[in-house]
């Protein structure tokens, strides 16, 4: 242990009665501990929310989704589709048509998110875990088009799966000539048989309607075009190799999206909120650590005679600065250590026992999800280090400018 470290430690562990500077140091440690704990817990909650979203969407989403970079719809050649099916690791694919339409069931109507899929989508069993009632089919054995409804839309339309007495009428406006008046012939209509109710998530439940690719193509007049091509993997697939192979097949006019990219808006929103929360809590921790600045400044004033003695026996200015820098580092390190331990402990208890619930009956998870990412822990440690240097440097500089002649009797 060198001299500056020894002196800094002695100043920190002094046991003088009614030493206000030491009390201020303990308050500084407490502030740093609370700020560090808050950073660990909040960042872990955002990580947990991201994982929950990925879990929900990855269960329903395709492994890869091919969409055009320009325009709304496209069509690949039969040769390209055949090459895609032959790529190692690809189990199947499905052409997808997505658009908004109006669904009418008896005297109820709603704007729905229409999603036309092929039988290969149903065969992936992605909807099995979300099924509430009915049979997962987009066409029955008689060739009739069927509809799979989100739970919210199912109740809004008052659909009756069990009886099959009433069909859903799907309508979509035709492209009218300029100046033409709308009429009963200005919309395309397709009838669907309610087949199943699924409960995926709150957003999709309110508007999702799945039907056959043929029915969606007919009502939207897409013919052989589609808005996306979804690709489904085998269990041992290599995503990077498959992406490289698909890029070679479809070319550079298409984007190949993984699950996160398919929901880039909400995933980016979580990342942005996490960033701003981190910055806000770091700033609060910086404000709390100003107590380190005040305690070191007061210590520098109180210990001017000690510094004069050190200068008198030949101590360099650098060593005096190091004493107060190390004092600040010691205060921040102890506070950050206990803050990290408490933060990690709270995350563990929340993950294991669900101490704090979401308070939502229909939530995917009942308690706030948490996930500890060690890069976040390292980032918090770096932040505390920088804050300590910022708040300790000025008092250390002040102490190093003591005039030894003035304070020596």
From TrEMBL:
GO biological process, one term: lipoprotein localization to outer membrane
Any single Gene Ontology cellular-component annotation: plasma membrane protein complex
Annotated membrane topology: Multi-pass membrane protein
InterPro entries, per database record: ABC3_permease_C, Lipoprotein-release_system, MacB_PCD
TM helices/strands, residue ranges: 20-46, 275-301, 328-351, 371-393
Main subcellular location: membrane
Alphabetical keyword list: Cell membrane, Membrane, Transmembrane, Transmembrane helix
Chain ranges of the ABC3 transporter permease C-terminal domain: 279-404
MacB-like periplasmic core domain sequence ranges: 25-156
Keyword flag Transmembrane: yes
Subcellular location(s) per record: Cell membrane
Recorded superkingdom: Bacteria
Family: Belongs to the ABC-4 integral membrane protein family. LolC/E subfamily.
Name the UniProt record assigns to this protein: ABC transporter permease
Organism: Roseivirga spongicola
């Amino acid at each position: 242990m060198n001299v500056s470290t020894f002196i800094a430690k002695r100043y920190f562990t002094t046991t003088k009665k009614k030493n206000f500077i030491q009390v201020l140091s303990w308050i500084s440690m407490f502030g740093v501990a609370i700020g560090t704990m808050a950073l660990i817990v909040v960042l872990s909650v955002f990580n947990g929310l991201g994982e929950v979203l990925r879990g929900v969407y990855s269960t329903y989403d395709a492994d890869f989704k091919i969409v055009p970079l320009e325009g709304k719809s496209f069509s690949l050649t039969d040769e390209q589709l055949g090459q895609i099916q032959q790529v190692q690791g690809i189990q199947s694919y499905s052409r997808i048509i997505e658009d908004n339409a109006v669904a009418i069931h008896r005297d109820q109507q709603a704007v729905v998110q229409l999603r036309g899929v092929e039988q290969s989508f149903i065969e992936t069993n992605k909807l099995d875990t979300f099924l509430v009632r009915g049979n997962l089919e987009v066409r029955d054995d008689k060739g009739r088009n069927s509809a799979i409804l989100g739970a919210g839309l199912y109740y809004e339309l008052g659909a009756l799966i069990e009886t099959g007495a009433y069909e859903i009428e799907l309508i979509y406006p035709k492209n009218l000539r300029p100046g033409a008046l709308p009429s009963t012939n200005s919309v395309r209509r397709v009838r669907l048989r309610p087949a199943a109710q699924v409960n995926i998530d709150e957003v999709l439940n309110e508007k999702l309607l799945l039907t056959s690719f043929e029915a969606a193509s007919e009502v939207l007049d897409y013919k052989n075009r589609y808005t996306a091509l979804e690709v489904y993997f085998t269990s041992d697939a290599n995503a990077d190799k498959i992406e490289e192979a698909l890029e070679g097949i479809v070319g550079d006019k298409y984007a190949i999206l993984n699950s996160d990219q398919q929901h880039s808006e909400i995933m980016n929103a979580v990342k942005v909120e996490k960033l701003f929360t981190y910055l806000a809590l770091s700033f609060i921790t910086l404000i709390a650590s100003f107590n380190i600045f005040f305690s070191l400044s007061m210590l520098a004033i109180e210990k001017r005679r000690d510094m004069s003695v050190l200068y008198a026996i030949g101590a360099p200015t650098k060593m005096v600065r190091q004493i107060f820098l190390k004092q600040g580092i010691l205060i921040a390190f102890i506070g950050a250590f206990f803050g990290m331990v408490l933060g990690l402990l709270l995350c563990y208890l929340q993950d294991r026992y669900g101490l704090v619930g979401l308070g939502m009956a229909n939530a995917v998870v009942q308690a706030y999800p948490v996930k500890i990412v060690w890069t976040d822990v390292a980032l918090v440690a770096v932040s505390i280090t920088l804050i300590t240097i910022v708040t300790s440097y000025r008092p250390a500089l002040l102490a190093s400018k003591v005039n030894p002649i003035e304070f020596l009797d």
